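Thread: Modeling a multi-component assembly for a lab meeting

Hi all, long-time lurker, first post. My supervisor asked me to bring a structural picture of a complex we are working on to next week's group meeting, and I have zero experience with this. I have the sequence lines for every component (670 residues in total). Could someone generate the structure of the whole assembly? Inputs are pasted exactly as I received them:
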Amino acid sequence: MTSRSPDPLGRRATILDVAAAAGVSRQTVTRAMNGMAGISPATRERVQKLAADLGYSPSRFAKGLVQGARISVGLAIPDLTNPYFPAFASSVVEAATQRHWNVVMDDYGHGTGSSLDAVARLAPQVDALIGYLGEDSDDAQALMGRRPVVVLDYPVSQAAGGISFDYRHAARLALNHLTARGCTNIVYLDSDQGGTAAGRGAAVAAMAAEAGVSPTICHAAPSASAAREAIAVLAAGSNLFDGLLVFNDLMAAGALKALQDSGRSVPGDCAVIGMDGIPLGELVTPELTTLSLNLRTVGRTAVDLLEGLLSGSVPAHSKDASLTLRHELILRQSA
Amino acid sequence: MTSRSPDPLGRRATILDVAAAAGVSRQTVTRAMNGMAGISPATRERVQKLAADLGYSPSRFAKGLVQGARISVGLAIPDLTNPYFPAFASSVVEAATQRHWNVVMDDYGHGTGSSLDAVARLAPQVDALIGYLGEDSDDAQALMGRRPVVVLDYPVSQAAGGISFDYRHAARLALNHLTARGCTNIVYLDSDQGGTAAGRGAAVAAMAAEAGVSPTICHAAPSASAAREAIAVLAAGSNLFDGLLVFNDLMAAGALKALQDSGRSVPGDCAVIGMDGIPLGELVTPELTTLSLNLRTVGRTAVDLLEGLLSGSVPAHSKDASLTLRHELILRQSA
DNA sequence: ATGAAAGCGCTAACAG
DNA sequence: CTGTTAGCGCTTTCAT
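Re: Modeling a multi-component assembly
Sure thing. I ran the full set together rather than chain by chain. Output:
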């Protein structure tokens, strides 16, 4: 293998270097590299080999500048560590890939970052944005200018479009099921973080009022371990709750463990309902009854919406740019 | 808010449009947009407002071309749906973000795609690649030319660098633990897919031979449900295995469910050990004993290595570019 | 404080 | 089949 080893850091070879080495014009190099017509097989191969030897790869910037490159969408996600988000991300990536878009992923939960940091990082790199942006949604759209932002799980105001969830519907489903089961002492374990939490908590409160039940509300950080601890404390107390609705499936899984640790049987002593419908729910014991969202659908819907926004077939801020999806109650063992 | 609504699809506003609208030179616009010195506050604000109204955002290509943009690394992953990969991806994203790199994510498991398709999509977009590339590793490096590829869980040959796992060590740990527990009839549930599977399977076989045990080998697709089914079938048979080592934690979780369904207690009737150490293991019942990898470390190591490769401080193909990480046995309840 | 010129690396549109 | 010209949108000089 002939190859000088060029400093990895130093200037990369350009098309001109290859052209010079081959003694041809840069156009010929273009033709060789892109499999275009109008070049003799001999030159093509010679050029290609030379290019490989020189370690030449075309600058995506130059190429993008002249050709207008494929769309890249930024995906801003709070925490890849909560299985909900990869499941969602996965479907976004899939739908994007089908359209020959690429997705630049940013997880802002890790550092101390806010979602706005993520957007700031993403904004110069992408043509559009999908994300769980919460209260930063408006600022995010400002940073993106005219480029569309699709906000998940937060009311669209400045954002071009968004997807919300009908939490009142979900809460009604869960509460009805619990009361129909005979639960009289219900607790709702909420996330202690704003944004989404507000939406879900408020809906649960409203629907509880409507159903004439008054659940105990408690809070924990949105992780399995925090939920486990919170429920452990609660279960150790005198509260003999017999129904538990949890902010999300991950937390519900933690709650299940705590209940089990405390010797309460599920659903015998206490029925448990999660929210999200992630695959994890089928792996825990007892298997988790949950308000399920088809994550595949959510991701696909977000990308479809974005496509509409990008093409102009869906006007930004229009009614069609604001979608609402509904949860469905999946009965498994825990309730 | 003054704003003509420009066709979303049509040509985006350029710096020249803004300059014309403001009646200044493009240079002044640059200065206004980038907060540079040498411009009166008045003009700056006027230009900024105009830019916003026109929906102007600078072309990342033009900018990248002239400035040399931040590094983007491609991340090629087989299946975001297996919790192992998001956990890994998460740490890569974190480490990359700290370096002001961005990561373009591609999940090739979804479609019928091979990892090479993912690399082909990624190659024109990125400066470097990290991925679970298996047998496509060499071709991937070819597609990337001189740009470094860090391969995970597969021997480095053409790739610039890689991270492998010491499966013989892992297998020894597990087998020793199982035999020390008194297991005499051990089964190894392998993935039915090549690549990584080969490495793990071979290591288990080798270490079993060394330990003088001869496990039953069975195969399933690398998903919880496939594993569950495979173990259900096995458990229904006459094989009274008392130790089960599983290809990964996800499959182990499925196996646990199957054992439970079949009425065999874990670890009483059968001890179970998983591999990977994903958080899921703590949520299942009984909690999963596993050969754990610190995923956070794996991701960070991959990014560190890539940084070395990129800067030239670690020569491609060198000894230092080939790292090996070891699993650690975490004892929980299942074995 | 502002403007003019040059050029980043590539490909499209024409020559020849 | 190959080479020449132009120009993508931006920032860097270097003037003014």
